[in-house]
Amino acid sequence: IVVMVFVTSRLVWLWLSLDTSMYWEESYRWIAALEILKHPIQPLFDYQADHYQGGSLCMILLAVGLLRIFGESILVMKLSALLISTATLCGLYVLGRRVFGRSTAVVAALAYIAGPPLVAYWGLVVMGSHGESILFSLLQFLIFFEILSGDWRTPWSWAVFGFVSGLG
Fold this sequence. Notes:
This protein is an all-alpha fold. The protein has helices at residues 2-17, 26-38, 54-70, 74-100, 102-113, 117-122, 131-149, 155-167. The mean pLDDT is 90.
């Protein structure tokens, strides 16, 4: 129910007022995604926005997949940001539930939905530097707590932890 409320509220915002969810730097992701989709002319890693923003490449590639499936439009491009925001909401809930209990998880998820407008805004901007790092940080904490609990205490768990940390 929480995920449905979140996705519905963000889709309504995009549908009714798409221009209020725009940021000038998204144009780079748009052009990079279209170029990769049609005919890439550079090596893949050259498409990330900055040398330190690996998340921008993840966001661009996610947008490429969605644009390929649903067609080219700015609304489809925004779905990649919505997907990351929804995954962040789910990660926040799962981490809260695993570590602190169900009531804390529900409160955290509701706070994320009804939080400050700036959080909602950046959750709909196709950037690859802030929202994605929050998602990866939540995943890092979740994996780390699972390793500490003993459930995932294997070399592969540490490898996954390192991989997620590197992506983040």
